[in-house]
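Reminder: ligand-aware prediction takes two inputs, not one.
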Amino acid sequence: MSETLAHEDESSAESERTGEGVEAVLRVEDLHKNFGGITAVDGATFGVERGSMTGLIGPNGAGKSTVFNLVTGIEDPDAGTVRFQGEDITGLRPYQVANRGLVRTFQIVRELPNLTVFENLMLPAKAQGGEALWRSVLPGFRRRVVDEERALRDRVWEVLEFFEIAHLAEEKASNLSGGQRKLLELSRALMLDPTMLMLDEPFAGVNPTLQKKLLERVEELNDEGRTFLVVEHDMDLIMNHCEHIIVMYQGRVLTEGTPADIKADEEVIEAYLGSEI
Ligand code: ADP
Ligand code: MG
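Here is what comes back for the chain with adenosine-5'-diphosphate:
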């Protein structure tokens, strides 16, 4: 007991020293990324509080999608660090990041058009299990594979029902509407049972009815304790649903705060809210 307490004291002292909030599930520090002559991300630093619904906003070209790519291993940063749940995950491959519980969706949906909705959901989870191949030499493997397959199928149905798209299970992804594709994309992310989801414009091009459904599901997942970082251009949506907002401009964080803080911040209004998005 006393040992546990001593350990806790030590770790909180450590977090004070490093200036890292113990509640920040994701922390990016001084991220940089250039593409040829273009500076996409130029010293972005921010934290995302565990369990929060955090918004990431900024004009087109501010570097939001690139930050998502750098955090989730799609691109390697030129400099800077990414920490998830205290672990340095900078430079890890996307599947390694996903395995740690950090999953993102894309601005442009990336489902496999020739597969059915059901097959699309089976895929990411299977890919995550790929490292289990060596276990095939162990006794009982075949039975375990059958059990895993069954558990996976159950999980697919669970997720499809959660997003109310079970009736589309056998539909080819290419036949889905834009909004339904966004639901599929979120479903795929949820298959991995993530601690944190990063959504890049999840509501763009989604009709209002579907948008409301999507929002309700996201809030439900957030209430379960999952952390969200959401890029979205609809300011009302961001203001009404995020408790914390980070504003990016020209590759760095211009300001951050509560919706009220952001509304009151003249710099933000000039750089972003007052301009064409
Ligand atoms: P946002 O998502 O905020 O609109 P992006 O991160 O997509 O911004 O882009 C930031 C800047 O980096 C833009 O000027 C964009 O054109 C550039 N950029 C992003 N990805 C690439 C790439 N793969 N190659 C070249 N330039 C890129
Ligand atoms: Mg973008």
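DSSP finds ten helices and ten strands in the chain. The first helix runs from residue 2 to 18. We will return to this case in the review session.
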